[in-house]
Amino acid sequence: FVQLHEEIKYIEDYLDLQKIRLHKKLDLTFEKDISDAKLKIPPLLFITLIENAFKHGIEPSENACFLHIHLKTTESDLIFICENSLEEKSEEEGGIGLNNLKRRLELKFPKKHEFAVNEKEDSYRAFLKIEL
Fold it and tell me: Is the pTM here over 0.90, yes or no?
Protein backbone atom coordinates (compact mmCIF):
# COMPACT_ATOMS: atom_id res chain seq x y z
CA PHE A 1 0.00 0.00 0.00
CA VAL A 2 1.00 3.63 -0.56
CA GLN A 3 -0.23 6.87 0.92
CA LEU A 4 -2.84 8.68 -1.15
CA HIS A 5 -0.67 11.78 -1.52
CA GLU A 6 2.00 9.61 -3.22
CA GLU A 7 -0.57 8.29 -5.68
CA ILE A 8 -1.78 11.83 -6.38
CA LYS A 9 1.80 12.93 -7.08
CA TYR A 10 2.24 10.01 -9.49
CA ILE A 11 -0.97 10.98 -11.34
CA GLU A 12 0.07 14.65 -11.51
CA ASP A 13 3.50 13.68 -12.90
CA TYR A 14 1.85 11.41 -15.49
CA LEU A 15 -0.54 14.20 -16.54
CA ASP A 16 2.34 16.68 -16.83
CA LEU A 17 4.22 14.24 -19.06
CA GLN A 18 1.18 13.70 -21.27
CA LYS A 19 0.66 17.47 -21.64
CA ILE A 20 4.25 17.81 -22.87
CA ARG A 21 3.87 14.88 -25.26
CA LEU A 22 0.43 15.84 -26.58
CA HIS A 23 0.34 18.31 -29.43
CA LYS A 24 -3.31 19.34 -29.22
CA LYS A 25 -5.55 21.42 -27.03
CA LEU A 26 -6.83 19.49 -24.04
CA ASP A 27 -9.34 20.64 -21.43
CA LEU A 28 -7.78 18.91 -18.42
CA THR A 29 -8.92 19.16 -14.81
CA PHE A 30 -7.85 17.16 -11.78
CA GLU A 31 -10.01 18.12 -8.81
CA LYS A 32 -9.08 16.80 -5.39
CA ASP A 33 -11.12 16.96 -2.19
CA ILE A 34 -9.04 14.93 0.22
CA SER A 35 -9.76 14.65 3.93
CA ASP A 36 -6.74 12.41 4.69
CA ALA A 37 -3.77 12.46 2.28
CA LYS A 38 -2.04 9.75 4.33
CA LEU A 39 -4.81 7.26 3.63
CA LYS A 40 -3.29 3.95 2.47
CA ILE A 41 -4.42 2.55 -0.88
CA PRO A 42 -3.07 -0.07 -3.29
CA PRO A 43 -0.49 1.48 -5.63
CA LEU A 44 -1.38 2.44 -9.20
CA LEU A 45 -5.08 1.98 -8.52
CA PHE A 46 -6.30 4.80 -10.79
CA ILE A 47 -3.67 4.99 -13.51
CA THR A 48 -5.28 2.35 -15.75
CA LEU A 49 -8.36 4.55 -16.12
CA ILE A 50 -6.28 7.64 -16.89
CA GLU A 51 -4.07 5.79 -19.38
CA ASN A 52 -7.19 4.44 -21.12
CA ALA A 53 -8.59 7.98 -21.32
CA PHE A 54 -5.51 9.10 -23.23
CA LYS A 55 -5.19 5.96 -25.37
CA HIS A 56 -8.83 5.65 -26.44
CA GLY A 57 -10.17 9.19 -26.07
CA ILE A 58 -7.58 11.95 -26.17
CA GLU A 59 -4.86 10.68 -28.53
CA PRO A 60 -7.14 9.63 -31.42
CA SER A 61 -9.26 12.79 -31.23
CA GLU A 62 -9.18 15.26 -34.05
CA ASN A 63 -11.47 17.80 -32.41
CA ALA A 64 -11.49 19.48 -29.02
CA CYS A 65 -10.98 16.92 -26.28
CA PHE A 66 -11.29 16.82 -22.52
CA LEU A 67 -10.25 14.81 -19.49
CA HIS A 68 -11.86 15.57 -16.14
CA ILE A 69 -10.64 13.69 -13.08
CA HIS A 70 -12.20 13.94 -9.62
CA LEU A 71 -10.82 12.37 -6.46
CA LYS A 72 -12.64 12.72 -3.17
CA THR A 73 -12.32 11.12 0.22
CA THR A 74 -14.66 11.23 3.15
CA GLU A 75 -14.42 9.46 6.47
CA SER A 76 -16.07 6.40 4.96
CA ASP A 77 -15.42 6.46 1.18
CA LEU A 78 -12.95 7.14 -1.57
CA ILE A 79 -14.50 8.25 -4.86
CA PHE A 80 -12.62 8.49 -8.16
CA ILE A 81 -14.24 9.66 -11.40
CA CYS A 82 -12.46 9.84 -14.73
CA GLU A 83 -14.40 11.26 -17.67
CA ASN A 84 -13.01 11.88 -21.13
CA SER A 85 -14.12 12.84 -24.59
CA LEU A 86 -14.66 10.10 -27.13
CA GLU A 87 -15.01 10.67 -30.85
CA GLU A 88 -15.89 7.24 -32.11
CA LYS A 89 -16.27 3.85 -30.56
CA SER A 90 -13.35 1.58 -31.08
CA GLU A 91 -13.90 -1.68 -32.91
CA GLU A 92 -10.95 -3.14 -31.00
CA GLU A 93 -11.59 -5.79 -28.45
CA GLY A 94 -10.88 -4.63 -24.92
CA GLY A 95 -7.46 -5.09 -23.42
CA ILE A 96 -6.55 -6.51 -20.05
CA GLY A 97 -6.28 -3.22 -18.13
CA LEU A 98 -9.90 -2.92 -16.98
CA ASN A 99 -10.17 -6.65 -16.27
CA ASN A 100 -7.04 -6.46 -14.12
CA LEU A 101 -8.42 -3.44 -12.28
CA LYS A 102 -11.72 -5.21 -11.62
CA ARG A 103 -9.86 -8.26 -10.32
CA ARG A 104 -7.64 -6.15 -8.06
CA LEU A 105 -10.70 -4.43 -6.63
CA GLU A 106 -12.38 -7.79 -5.98
CA LEU A 107 -9.29 -9.06 -4.18
CA LYS A 108 -8.47 -5.93 -2.15
CA PHE A 109 -12.00 -4.66 -1.47
CA PRO A 110 -14.42 -7.59 -1.67
CA LYS A 111 -18.02 -6.33 -1.48
CA LYS A 112 -16.66 -2.91 -0.46
CA HIS A 113 -16.35 -1.24 -3.82
CA GLU A 114 -18.46 -0.08 -6.72
CA PHE A 115 -17.03 0.24 -10.23
CA ALA A 116 -19.06 1.33 -13.23
CA VAL A 117 -18.39 2.67 -16.69
CA ASN A 118 -20.78 4.70 -18.78
CA GLU A 119 -19.97 5.04 -22.46
CA LYS A 120 -21.91 7.56 -24.51
CA GLU A 121 -21.48 8.55 -28.12
CA ASP A 122 -19.09 11.38 -27.25
CA SER A 123 -17.77 10.58 -23.76
CA TYR A 124 -16.61 7.82 -21.46
CA ARG A 125 -17.00 7.94 -17.69
CA ALA A 126 -15.46 5.58 -15.14
CA PHE A 127 -16.73 5.71 -11.55
CA LEU A 128 -15.00 4.00 -8.65
CA LYS A 129 -16.16 4.09 -5.04
CA ILE A 130 -14.36 2.24 -2.27
CA GLU A 131 -15.63 1.86 1.27
CA LEU A 132 -12.84 2.65 3.70
Answer: yes
